[in-house]
Amino acid sequence: MDLGFYALQLLTGLAYASTLFLLSVGLSLIFGAMGIVNFAHGSFYMLGAYFLYAFTRGQADGFWGGLLLVLATGFVIGAFVERIFIRRVYARPEEYQILLTYALLLIIEDLVRFFFGTGYRAFPMPQAFAGPLFLLGTPFPSYYLFLIGLAAVSALLLGIFLYRTRLGAWIRAATQDREMLEALGVNVPLLYTVVFGVGIALAALGGAALLPMQAATPGMAVDAVINAFIVVVIGGLASVWGALLGAVLIGLVQALGVLFLPEWAMVFPFALMALTLLLRPWGLLGRPPAVRT
Amino acid sequence: MSLRIEGLRAGYGEIPVLHDVNLEVREGEVVALLGRNGAGKTTLIKAVMGMVRVFSGSVAYRGRELIHLPLFRRAQLGLGYVPDDRRIFPELTVRENLLVAQRPGRWNLEQIYRLLPRLKEIEHRKGGLLSGGEQQMLTIARTLMTNPQLLLLDEPTEGLAPLVVEEIARLVLELKGEGLPILLAEQNLKFTGQVADRAYVLETGEVRLEGEMEDLLHREEVAALLAL
Ligand SMILES: Nc1ncnc2c1ncn2[C@@H]1O[C@H](COP(=O)(O)OP(=O)(O)OP(=O)(O)O)[C@@H](O)[C@H]1O
Ligand SMILES: [Mg+2]
Fold this sequence. Notes:
By secondary structure, chain A is mainly alpha-helical. Chain A has eleven helices and two strands.
């Protein structure tokens, strides 16, 4: 095995991490700002993939437009779901939000089966990424670079949004004390709609972006939400940078695991999560729960 | 009339804490809410904001019934709530704590920094790292950034050193001088005597006494009700 081979594994891990980041960051944002544990998060990731397929009728030339459309539809659907469903459970015990978002997961899965069937829906590689690139003499799919770039740009834009805009400052404040923010005259219910929309749009984008590499199936939602929880638990709930760190760690651990101990590769992410929970239960970049005086 | 509360019963869960409270704050007036620990001062202020359960009664602000309005609407209408536990956003800087609250009006960042230069000095410090006195200044300043037309101040002097209490008194008098009506929950009789025009004394959720602050200061029942 030469150096190029290792570099390829690294790149594969980072590409995987990129979709994981898009998937998980919304889960983290939604939990942080709204206190909602969204079990249906992976279902919107799946919807993103199916929507890209539907918008483009499975044709690669519609890829770029389709991706933008998925992002926009994701926001609208997220906002809609918050208004119609999620809103009703804020004031109730936590079991309600778990039941509600789990019900959404089941319903979305059945809707997908109904409209798209139970089989695979594959998408051809867009023209721009048709040929491989070479890294230290080893060929690798150029689409990896697109995935990594997409996640990097998304993380950057999200960082600017959260740390440089007023809306972003409200979202961070909501993460710390929602009631106080509302007492200052901020329309927190509307803010929640926006946060949920943004989180869902990012997940849908992640699902759509993975489609040319991995076909969509109705079962992918459950896998996705489990992965998203692992990432967020490792990185720290309610932390965007935590989601980024968690995604990169899982991506690399997966890629290296496949390389060295393939039969154990599935176990590594869980082991990493268990280790984090033992040593730093609030996650690597999360904060221990504050005791308000 | 800025605020008129009538027949208010409010509390937590199924348990009312306030019983048939009547209270008024006129325009330009500082009204104190006195009473010992657990008398119901905080509950009353929160009931005005809609942050506790109201069983019956009326809370009208400038003649408008508030009872069914959400919290943010009350704030947008001009109610400025300053919590007793400060509730600074700990991960936001001092400047960000102020800016998230900004609504159009007389008060902006520049005006706040002119009034409280100390906040300008520490504007890039995280809210969670401030001293008690700094936090108290910031929590009042943050609410001023919403440009309130009625200030609800819950025990602003609690746990503060005498010098800081003096500073808060100056601040409250300055706001009073600008004609801002204030409802002030307090246990510190000296401070209250400096700033309030009238007062209500609460005991176990009921108004026991009300009157001009100057008169109340010399009444023995007041000292008894406050257990001084
Ligand atoms: N969250 C709550 N749930 C249930 N009961 C509460 C809650 N908060 C306060 N109470 C009760 O309501 C009553 C009034 O409390 P409140 O905080 O309004 O008093 P206060 O006059 O503000 O006292 P302090 O001077 O200590 O701030 C007390 O008996 C208290 O135990
Ligand atoms: Mg109190």
